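[PROTEIN RECORD]
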Amino acid sequence: MELNKYLDVNAEVLQAVREGKPVVALESTIISHGMPYPQNVETALNVERIIRENGAVPATIAIIGGRLKAGLTPEEIEYFGKKGTAIAKASRRDLAALIARGEDGATTVTTTMIIAHMAGIKIFATGGIGGVHRGAETTMDISADLEELAMTPVMVVCAGAKSILDLGLTLEYLETHGVPVVGFGTKELPAFYTRKSGFAVDYEIDTPEELAKMFKAQSDLGLKGGMLVTNPIPEEYSMDADVINKAIDNAIAEAVSLGIHGKETTPFLLAKIKDLTGGDSLASNIQLVYNNARLAAKTAKAYCEL
């Protein structure tokens, strides 16, 4: 495996990839922008621990000093957590600039997929993906995550698209770009904080082994693009749909009144929703990430056994 000259792969991760052992990629925006310090560092280290407990090697992905990193040390995770929102969120368009300037970048779903693919990692666990924003027919605000899913052959395990989005249009966009949307044990797209959305997924699959077989077949066929696995938040941590939807509507109305748009929209809305729900949304967010890490590790293990 020839590595990109801008990429540093952690020794443990590199050995696992070369020996065909299971590895799960993790994003770093959740550390820098997802929650406050020290909760962000505790959560990131817990996610890595959960992946190890389920038979895989964790590879948290980030950009540090202009170097693409696949696999962070605990010290690097601590650095990211402390620096927090001072670190730029890095999408595909930002990678070359961050490398050229020798700067740090927190990887989104998009850039985590790109760097994971460069490092030979096939499976990635996250919280929720971006998508088509409400009102996108006039703003054209569509997350780069969707385009990356159409181009980069990485399986993304998530709790669905964030419910601040237009979920119907997000599914339409993915269908147009040929991205299979799979529900793990569900026929219905989970809506991040809640288990149901009213929208159907393409396929329901009930075991990590079946997920692995489907992704292996997609890879063997040489089909371009990834696979989106939507894993509902555990029932005990699911929020009341009416409560969360009311908070989302209020947060969106405030964002519009303040003129917030583009890449500032999602962090503003998630922070506002956290305030409006008295912190319940953050607790749910952490639990759904843990749940996705477990499934991704089990699926990565099954994939390596095929």
About this structure: The first helix runs from residue 11 to 18. The chain has 13 helices and eleven strands.
